[in-house]
Amino acid sequence: MQGKGLIKFLVVAVAIACLYSLSFTFVTRKVERDAAAYAQGDMAKEKAYLDSMAGEVVYDLGIAKYTYREAKGNEIALGLDLKGGMNVTMEVSLQELVRNLANNPKDENFNKALENAATRSKDSQAGYISLFVDEFKKLNPNTPLASFFATKDNTAHVKPNSTDSQVESFLQREANSAIDNSFKVLRTRIDKFGVTSPNIQLQQGTNRILIELPGVTDEDRVRKLLQGSARLEFWETYDNMEIYPMLENVNRALASTLKETEQAAKTAVADTTNADSTDAGLLATLGGGSDSLDTDSFDSQLALQNPLFNVLRPATAMAPNNQPVLAPGPIVGYAQLRDTAKVNRYLENPVVKQIIPGNVKLLWGVKPNPRSPEQLELYAIKPSGAEAGPILGGNVVTDARDDFDPMSNNPMVTMYMNSEGAREWRKITAAASADPNNKQSIAIVLDGVVYSAPRVDGEIPNGISQITGNFTIEDTKDLANVLKAGRLPTTAKIVEEAVVGPTLGQAAIDAGVNSAVIGLVLVLIFMIAYYNRAGLVANIAVLFNMFFILGILASLNAVLTLPGIAGIVLTMGTAVDANVLIYERIREELRLGKSVRQAVADGYKHAMSSILDSQITTFLTGMILFFFGSGPILGFATTLMIGIITSLFTSIFISRVIFEWMLTKGWSISLSFPWSEKTLQNANFAFVQNRKKFYAASAIFVVIGLVSIFTKGFSLGVDFQGGRAYTVQFEQPINLEEVRGHLNSAFNATTEVKLFGSQDQVRITTTYLIDETSDEANDEVLSKVDEALTKLDNNSYEVLGSYKVNPTIASDMKARAVYAGLFSILVIAAYILIRFRKWQYSAGAAVSTVHDALVILGLFSLLDGVVPFALDIDQHFIAALLTVVGYSINDTVVVFDRLRENLGLSKHKNEDVGQTINLAINKTLSRTVITSLTVIFVLAVLFVFGGEVIRGFSFAILIGIIVATYSSIFLAAPMVADLQSNSKTVDSVDVESANKTTPKPSRV
After folding, report:
1. Are 601 and 669 contacting, i.e. CB atoms less than 8 angstroms apart?
2. Which end of the chain has fewer CB atoms < 10 Å from its terminal CB, N or C?
3. CB within 8 A of 185, min separation 6: which ones?
4. DSSP character for 627?
5. Where are the alpha helices (DSSP H) in 54-107?
């Protein structure tokens, strides 16, 4: 084996990297266990403990130290379905954007075009702007778009004589800008919200923003926070020298307060036997931090004497005599990121609030200065406008763009204001620059955070301002976006929402862990039982694979969801696929009389083509799923793709290194037990000869399924039909019909009620007020659910989670699901065409794949309402369907690879194509059966132990694997025989030779 040294180095390097990435999770879990032990169930005390630890070093590697906050950012984050929390999809209203850019015209045709475009956008993949322009031209064929959009605010971009194409480009730019700006505003708000490991993503190509907030419990606060309008303001500022005396008074007052707290803590330590943890938490809550307990240490004494200045360094500069002096400007101090929460607690102290005047506001900067990446700046803001507020609102800004200073070529921002804003701005800038020796700064504040506070160098008469500073190009882009966000002519509304309670999340964690452990044990036992000592080698590779998957997920800061755990469980089953392919080839080589060393070398060599082809096709499916999926499905796709890569590495390289080491040591390598040695070794089933029987059986089943689909239909999940769903747990088992009857009466409509895992838990789905997204509508629907459920006698209940989807996004999800399915078939067919250079192979694989999809769809329609668990068609089902498509191609490609290999051998050149294909199927039959069995084992475990949340998902994959195994053996390859025999061009066999007497298959 070539490059053993390099492979060993890679294994060690990757292992160390994965261990490093996973170590953060172990560290944070220990801190959280300590917090839980201290709090004894009091969530407020637990949160206070963790807040106090945020800035404390909890992981010291010698060369690097990490605070709890930093370690938390590097751990494996748990998704909402595991941890509980809130998941929302925000949609930027482009209809509102276009209407506002035209100054809300009353023209009937204009508004009709807006409505028509909104209706068409539900079923079209075209962008809203394109649809609007198309509808406008239909209704107003002789009216130019510029007649509506050449307004005073748009004068820099749209002229009265602008063409429709130019106006459309302007609208598209504004739409993209509005989406980007909304994303930035939401990201800043979420950062301020203080959620641990939030996830916010802009869904590329759409006007939607996906947000995950693990652990949040105040849903109303989240809704108000996310749906509020962006608030851009311009404020006057104080100079640092004006504020410093006040900060000194604050520091002295805090020192006095904390000294009294210290004395109380020492008294408590003397009087209480179990006071250590209590006093630590007391001081931490009051702001002292965890090291405040050691009140006799020098650092702790210094912190008690200067509590504020210990965490907030005053803004200073060096005078000409090299002496520190207070720095001029609005920045009054700097704090480490880990200390900002402590500074905020100090400033909220009742004693401190009495010292800070009402006309002083202290606001943080938006992000650290590049020169001090661990520090935030604190600004002193002067309320001086109307009602002691800002001097100017952001609504006067008409445009802003990132630019370069023509004199210095440094990045800067150019800001434009409307005429009203220009007049006010002239007065403001004139006053701020009146004293040439003390020019004032104006703070640009968005949602209570300072983005910049440029000094005013002179009066600005025309409303066009150039903002310069120590900016990077990214800084100017962000600032320009912030300025434009102040006049966002649109809003972002929640169109999809999922709330998962911690109870449901813990149940999901337990189910996921149980299924993963049991599935892993089953795979390990089966491999040893079938392949003897070689099975042990495969198991070592599987364990390395699990370790690498988790390590890579941690290094990528990926979010682990329940479907993600399902992906890991599934990967454990498919991870042995490469080993099975290798082992079966080694066994073939041994039966040819080769030495063990040569058989191992040739086995790896000959299996490589099949391994790569089968895994690449599955990886392509994962990529399509990643592109079209959202939310938890992204976790599944990510895990699946990572698992394929790590499986290839561990199966091909690690197992090979172990085999080489065993051979060097002179150990015997056993690849079977007596009972498994000849399993399917001499298989000679007439698959091709009996293909028409299988065609007929498949056709009958597909027809039955299609009849059910078109007559009975499907049970669509909320994400495909829209509406609201609630997961409710009762104290006692319930009568499903009684619950359904009360809900139907409350909603005056048919309500879907299904058992969800057990007799005391249900999933309620309703389309009541389906088009309403307001908080009032949410409250009304939930009140009707409460109204119905309270009629159940002596059976208390708890709503564990909720899920809401707007009809618009539901239509889009269905469209994306259809495109994902079609695209996956086309991509895989194209890959097979490129790889095997025969359209017959692509056609056979495509027909087989479509067959598998139709069978699964038919089964979900036929069995819905028959089996005791939900068979909803939703995003999870689509993920399962695409996974089955990938697995089906995986199996098929292995047969195709052996067929291509056989056709290249001289002894098969004169054989009939059907006979050669039949031989290829039989030769790979043992691999197909063994791999399918391992996957079925783990999927059966996932189905039984994985929990109700993914039961339908695991059922779809389980049935799909069985169907895919059938189709790869009985349909795909035999169909190639039919297509080849009817083709004028065949590999190494012409039509004439195909009609000759078929020889018996060669025996190896």
Report:
1. no
2. C
3. 230, 446, 447, 485, 488
4. H
5. 68-74, 80-83, 94-101
Per-residue pLDDT averaged across 878-890, rounded?
77
Nearest one of 654, 673, 797, 809 to 726, comparing CA atoms = 797
How many Å separate Cα 689 from the centre of its chain? 48
- Tell me how far apart the alpha carbons of residues 736 and 741 are, in angstroms, rounded to a whole number: 9
- Candidates 789, 818, 813; CA nearest to 803 is 813
Retrieve residue 875's tokens: 């995003």
Residues with Cβ within 8 Å of 558's Cβ and at least 6 positions away in sequence, in order, are 76, 77, 564, 635, 638, 639
**pLDDT tens digits, 498-553:** 777 666 666 767 777 777 788 788 888 888 888 888 889 888 988 888 899 888 88
Look-up of token digits 């909402």: 80
Q: 459 — phi, psi (to 5°)?
A: -65, 135
DSSP conformation letters of 16-55: HHHHHHHHHHHHHHHHHHHHHHHHTT-HHHHHHHHHHHTT
Q: Are 364 and 376 in contact (CB under 8 A)?
A: yes
Which domains, and CATH codes, for the chain?
Answer: 4-75 (no CATH), 89-199 (no CATH), 236-365 (no CATH), 501-667+683-712+811-994 (no CATH), 723-796 (3.30.70)
Cβ atoms of 910 and 556 within 8 Å: the answer is: no
Chain position carrying tokens 């689509």: 878
Taking the C-alpha atoms of residue 64 and residue 23, their distance in angstroms, rounded to an integer, is: 13
Structure tokens at 450: 């300072």
Query: Is the whole model's pTM more than 0.70, yes or no?
Result: no
What are the angstrom distances between the C-alpha of 547 and each of 21, 200, 552, 583, 649?
11, 27, 9, 23, 12
